[in-house]
Inverse folding.
């Protein structure tokens, strides 16, 4: 089994088991009760929105350099699947940049996303999400006489799976750490892995 397959199965298992694991999670502390009777690690309460900004290292397919990936996320808390498991729907937007000998590559994607967050305590939560959307891939090639330079942009389908940990710094801000798998269909397929990725969630 490849590393990509193992990561995909692990993330899928997290999403499937979150509601069941939530039933066995410990009760919330006094600190949680000051936050609308909900664990701060879950993020925004049901009916509310949270916003996240993340920065990570993105590992591209062979032939390109490791580069930065900047991500923004807006998520709406739809419902509680269990006392400590919350379903959110929203969208993630990301920009990644990579160099390669004789040129550069960047991508810009927008992916509708579904996320399940499981509170282990009022301060710590695990989450997993999946999304399907669109991305623009842009390649620029430097001029190398006698060959001219050039560039090309392509619209592609983007599929994402991710998982991570949220830690409540205070009742309105969480520290995030995650790993993400991004699959793109462009004359075949290409896989990008983002790790480590860290950020802040505001709610």
């Amino acid at each position: 089994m490849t590393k990509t397959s193992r990561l995909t199965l692990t993330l899928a298992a997290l999403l499937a088991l979150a509601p069941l694991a939530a039933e066995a999670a410990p009760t919330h502390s006094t600190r949680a009760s000051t936050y609308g009777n909900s664990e701060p690690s879950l993020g925004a309460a049901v009916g509310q929105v949270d916003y996240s900004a993340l920065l990570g290292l993105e590992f591209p397919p062979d032939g390109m350099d490791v580069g930065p990936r900047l991500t923004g996320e807006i998520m709406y808390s739809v419902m509680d699947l269990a006392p400590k498991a919350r379903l959110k729907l929203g969208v993630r937007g990301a920009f990644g940049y990579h160099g390669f000998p004789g040129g550069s590559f960047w991508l810009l994607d927008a992916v509708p996303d579904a996320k399940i967050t499981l509170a282990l305590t009022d301060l710590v939560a695990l989450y997993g999400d999946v999304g399907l959307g669109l991305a623009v891939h842009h390649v620029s090639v430097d001029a190398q006489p006698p060959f001219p330079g050039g560039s090309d942009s392509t619209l592609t389908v983007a599929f994402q799976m991710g998982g991570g940990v949220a830690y409540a710094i205070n009742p309105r801000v969480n520290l995030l750490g995650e790993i993400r798998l991004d699959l793109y269909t462009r004359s075949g397929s290409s896989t990008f892995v983002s790790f480590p990725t860290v950020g802040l969630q505001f709610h």
